[in-house]
Design brief:
With about 375 residues, the chain is of the alpha/beta class. About 25% of the residues lie in helices and about 20% in strands. The protein has helices at about 40-45, 95, 140, 155, 160-175, 190-200, 210-220, 235-240, 270-275, 300, 310-315, 330-340, 360-365; strands at about 1-10, 10-15, 30-35, 60-70, 80-85, 130-135, 145, 180-185, 205-210, 225, 245-250, 275-285, 320, 350-355, 375. The strands form 3 sheets. Strands 3, 4, 5, 6, 7, 14 and 15 form a 7-stranded mixed β-sheet that branches. It has a 6-stranded parallel β-sheet with strand order 10-9-8-11-12-13, sandwiched between helices. Strand 1 and strand 2 form a beta hairpin. Bound molecules: zinc ion (2 copies). The site of one zinc ion (ZN) has 7 residues, from loops.
């Protein structure tokens, strides 16, 4: 079958990979109808991880069930399903506690926890930027969609990762109705964090970025855009909050944070958060950080060491929540908000493309070219 194959840094192409198929009785086989390019694909695309050449990306997947194993009870052939990027079992110690982001069964390395489709360090699982996808523990991992699945496909596919991940940030930060929230990063996850903070009842949401197209999208949902190439975001937040700082903050950038001139500093956004969130405030970090980053800008960064202003953070009595999102904790409720027309996460989608245009889309998204805010790959477009 065709898939988007990684050939090396900044080099992907559509090639043949072995067909996805039912391998165990609990598997579900899904024909992919929508699969997104994610910001975290770019870390791998740029060669900043140990993702193996010849493998394929794709962890934000949705499609139609074409076959189920003998041990699958709930999911039926023909149904549309969206798959959490976390692959989890449902019965291990972490899954039982709801931490499906740190499943012990689907991650073969005993020193690690957590698995995902087509992802560096997250197990051997093939990605969904392909014609078909094998879904392990199908009854547990498939979130079934209703009759509006195709009509709202660009909304529902966001349930695989970025909408729940965006929701996880204000959730970890402790956002309650009436809060003022500052979000660093207006990529797809930051924009979803802004949507989620608003959905959770935040009175004011400020979003920091420097790309005009992203800031426009933030403004479209009522957030206050802050361009950090023109304005000091910390001072702006303090000015907006009588010098107190925001109640809550969200980190949606990750370890490749850099200033407007391009100088990388993995502590940049965390330090800005510590400075612009009030005493006793909460911070949710969903931007990706890595235990090692061989391509990092200095010796500390290469070893995953991030020099944050811990003294100020402690002094202010702030809390920080970190880590990948346990998608299953939120995806059902967020699905029903979409079904009930309360939220429309597809407002960020800029491009729908067939698999054959993936290489071009990766390049544009990686270069942050204007207007390339979110790409949805639809393998069926090739036949249209
Ligand atoms: Zn993603
Ligand atoms: Zn598990």
């Amino acid at each position: 079958m065709k898939a988007v194959v990684y050939n090396g840094p900044r080099d992907v192409s559509v090639g043949d990979v072995s067909d996805a198929k039912i391998e165990r009785p609990t598997d579900v086989l899904v024909k992919i109808t929508a699969t997104n390019i994610c910001g975290s694909d770019l870390h791998m695309y740029e060669g900043r991880t140990d993702f193996e050449t010849g493998r394929n990306f794709g962890h934000e997947n949705m499609g139609q069930v074409v076959e189920v194993g003998d041990g699958v009870d709930k999911v039926k052939v023909g149904e549309y399903v969206v798959l959490p990027f976390n692959i989890s079992c449902g019965f291990c110690k972490n899954c039982e506690r709801g931490h499906t982001n740190y499943c012990l069964t689907t991650q073969p390395d005993a020193a690690l926890a957590g698995a995902a489709y087509g992802f560096a360090g997250m197990g051997p699982w093939a990605g969904g930027q392909a014609e078909m996808l094998r879904v392990p523990y199908g009854d547990h991992n498939c979130l079934r969609l209703g009759e509006d699945a195709k009509e709202k496909e660009n909304d529902y596919v966001m349930l695989a990762d970025i909408f729940p991940t965006g929701y996880h940030a204000p959730e970890m930060a402790g956002v309650v109705p009436g809060d003022t929230v500052v979000i660093y990063g207006a990529g797809p996850v930051g924009l979803m964090a802004a949507l989620s903070a608003t959905t959770k009842g935040a009175a004011r949401v400020m979003v920091v970025d420097r790309h005009p197209d992203r800031l426009r999208l933030a403004e479209q949902i009522g957030a206050i855009p802050i361009d950090d190439s023109k304005t000091d975001p910390v001072q702006f937040v303090l000015d907006q909050t009588m010098g107190l700082g925001a109640d809550r903050g969200c980190e949606c950038v990750g370890y490749q944070a850099h200033d407007p001139q391009g100088t990388e500093d993995p502590a940049l956004t965390l330090n800005r958060l510590i400075a612009s969130v009030r005493f006793t405030g909460g911070i949710g970090v969903v931007g990706v950080f890595m235990p090692a980053d061989p391509g990092g800008p200095n010796e500390d960064a290469k070893q995953g060491k991030v020099a944050i202003d811990y003294g100020l953070h402690w002094f202010k009595g702030q809390t920080i929540g970190s880590g990948q999102c346990p998608v299953k904790k939120y995806n059902r409720q967020l699905r029903d908000l979409i079904a009930g027309d309360k939220v429309k996460p597809s407002w960020i989608v800029s491009h729908e493309i067939p698999l054959t245009e993936a290489a071009d889309a990766y390049r544009n998204f990686d270069e942050r070219n204007d207007g390339w805010t979110k790409v949805v790959i639809k393998p069926e477009l090739a036949n249209a």
